[in-house]
Amino acid sequence: MKLPLEGIRIVDLSSVVMGPWASQMLGELGADIIKVESPAGDVTRQMGPAKNPGMAAVFLSTNRHKRSIVLDLQRPEGKEALQRLVVDADVLLHNLRPQAAEKLGISYESFRSQNPKLIHCAAYGFHHAGPMANHPAYDDIIQAASGMAYLVGTISDQPRFVPSIVADKTAAYAVVSKIMAALLQRMHSGQGQALEVTMLETMVDFNLVEHLYGATFDPPIADMGYSRILTRERRPYKTLDGYLTVLPYTDKNWRDFFRIVGREELAEHPDFATMSARVDNADKVYAFLAEAVATRSSAELEAALLEAQIPVMRVNTIEDLLTDEQLQASGFWLEVEHPTEGRLRHTTPALSLRKNPADFERHAPLHGEHSVEILTELGYSSDEIQTLMQTGVSRVPAPSTPTSSNKETTE
Q1: Does domain 9-205+331-410 have CATH number 3.40.50.10540?
Q2: What is the rounded distance in angstroms from the CA atom of residue 362 to the CA atom of residue 340?
Q3: Virtual torsion, Cα 6, 12, 14, 17, nearest 10 deg
Q4: SS3 assignment, position 12
């Protein structure tokens, strides 16, 4: 079966996580992703444990399904090669701030005349129209700016970051969604367009789905912040021998929970009887949960709650996920053989329409692994390619690093 983005070429100038993870997802849907790297390479090539230089764990997790070409875009020859790439491309993705993109000559207007069907996606921290348009933006910065660190602080002793690069990854999904929508719109109009995905607006939208709350109305009719989520009592609860997440949700769930813990009389208590009452009294409700759970063993309580169909879950460590029965049964974990990095563990992409591990057609590439291949496709002669290599405009992997074929094998 043909994949939805087969025949779509995406020139990806982005680095770090947001853009590369987005383009990896698009590659999984069949797009030809050409990763344009500077001579220094994507910074994630050095991020995390590695067997070989430039092939660190974070890079391997965010750059599958791509071909890598090195181009020094500070040089006229590098810009010329990029122009050749973009003239027939469907999408250009970059994460340079507006001022830097304009200076480097990769703004939408730089390509619009030669390729009116181009979808130009700029993904960065802050909207170009605001006073912070050229402010540096990383995940921690956006967690602070978007209210995320404050929200975590409401259940802690001070503002804190979520221990995940949640802004980068949430914005990556927005990049994928906008590019897919623009490709669909181009089918109707025949025209490309400029897209802008900003981490701040994406994360504020994400955070305020529930936390706009009383300010949904103008003027506000209650405080902002969904009280059930903001109580410090909302957490996994300590049992006699471990921790459980226990979440009676419906009125029936709560009646059954009161029966299981021997407190049937609370089913009619005004603080517990209805959903709205439980939301208004979240601190009291969750404090009661903590007290009740503490009297039982994990196995005993879990069995009783599962029998009553009350939502319950043991707390997994990240190491537990590697052997989790549900993930094993669904085929979530994929093991592939990388030509230079050996056996690797990958997750099944969330947006994938394919479940067969053999469909991993491209490994995360070596730095400049496909430079010659792509330059040849662009019409450069062997002599011209050699000149680009000798002058440092482009490069291929160092001779001591084994190169590899384009295909990845799986078992």
Answers
A1: yes
A2: 13
A3: 20
A4: strand
Residues 6+ apart with CB under 8 A from 100: 134
C-alpha neighbours within 13 Å on the C-beta side of residue 211: 17
Give CA angle at 322 (249, 336), nearest 5°. 130
Q: Kindly list the strands in the beta sheet with 193-198, ordered across the sheet, starting from the edge strand earlier in the chain.
A: 66-70, 32-37, 9-12, 91-94, 119-124, 193-198
Query: Which tens digits make up the pLDDT trace of 159-197?
Result: 999 999 999 999 999 999 999 999 999 999 999 999 999
Domain 237-314, CATH: 3.30.1540.10
Question: Which residues of the chain does CATH 3.40.50.10540 include?
Answer: 9-205+331-410
Q: Which residue ranges does the chain devote to CATH 3.30.1540.10?
A: 237-314
pLDDT tens, position by position, 121-160: 999 999 999 999 999 999 999 999 999 999 999 999 999 9
Q: Give alpha helix (H) positions in 341-391.
A: 371-377, 382-390
Q: Are 301 and 237 in contact (CB under 8 A)?
A: no
**C-alpha separations of 291 from 77, 222, 234, 245, 286 in Å:** 69, 30, 12, 13, 9
pTM: 0.91
Q: Is the dihedral of CA 94, 99, 105, 110 positive or negative?
A: positive
